[in-house]
Amino acid sequence: MHLIIVEDLPFDQEKLADLIRQDCASHGESVDLSFYASGEDFLAHYRPKSCDGLFLDVLLGGLTGIEVARRVREAEKRLPVIFTTRERDYAVDGFAVDATDYLVKPLDPAQVGRCMERLRSYLAAPSSISLLEPSGRGHSAPVEVALDDVLYGQYLDHVMTVYTCSGAYRTRSSFQDFTAQLPHTGRFYVCGRGLVVNLSQVARVLDSELLLKNGERLSFSRNRRQEIQKAYAEWAADRTRKGRWAR
Questions:
Q1: Rounded mean pLDDT, 18-32
Q2: pLDDT for 131-161, tens place per residue?
Q3: How do 150-156 and 139-146 pair as beta strands?
Q4: pLDDT tier for residue 90 given thresholds of 50, 70 and 90
């Protein structure tokens, strides 16, 4: 994997790099590390999707780590951003830029190891699925759909339609083939015949409806309410436990 470290103190930079290398070596992995001593230098060279994880010191000279992360988030919503800091109080500011994790200095092998394990799990999970959308005259064109953007998928009249935050996609896939592409982490739940929903897009479970965060409502059989409530509660608990690492 390729990781970037933005740290203005040489000792802290080398300490984090050594701990990451040691952890990767213990797993038989190789890691490519890039280093920047300021947020300005990093942003001048940064290109979206050029790394697998970004380690940012919060208190950099010049632009702060929070300000750097804010600019990164404008181009890349899902890149794991891990802050390093001596002050836990900055965690509140980190929520505004979707910080994935925090490492509190002085760093030690145990906390870096836990972070690296979460990073491996996060990178192993798919972030998108590929759909074949009909393009006319019997042809289909591949479309990449980010899993974070999926609201729900519905199979009706032999057509699979995937509803997302930015629009709907029709695909020739069967319901079984579509759901087989989804990660089996509890996030996507089949709540009715031909209907699968992204539980991270659900605001509330009502008597016989799911209220989505965008205000849309999906109906389900009332006798499945307890089962669906349990699935939603388990996903919410898992997301709380994993924080921004949840997928």
A1: 96
A2: 888 776 667 788 889 898 999 999 998 889 9
A3: unpaired
A4: low
Instruction: Please tell me whether residue 195 adopts helix, strand or coil conformation.
Output: strand
- Give yes or no for a contact between 169 and 150, defined as CB atoms under 8 angstroms apart: no
Q: Which of 188, 157, 184, 187 is nearest to 170 (CA)?
A: 157
DSSP 99: -
pLDDT over threshold 90, residue 197: yes
Give the C-alpha separation, 151 to 167, whole Å.
10
Neighbours of 160 (CB within 10 A): 22
| CB of 66 closer than 8 Å to CB of 97 | yes
Per DSSP, the residues of 157-225 read TTEEEEEETTEEEEES--HHHHHHHS-TTTTEEEEETTEEEEGGGEEEE-SSEEEETTS-EEE--GGGH
For residues 205 and 88, which has the higher predicted lDDT (pLDDT)?
Answer: 205
Question: What is the gyration radius of the CA atoms in the chain, in angstroms?
Answer: 21
Length of the chain as a residue count: 247
**Nearest 10 degrees: Cα torsion 44, 64, 3, 144:** -70
Contact 7, 37 (CB under 8 A): yes
State the Cα–Cα distance between residues 82 and 144, nearest whole angstrom.
27
**Cα 98 to Cα 51: distance, rounded to the nearest angstrom:** 17
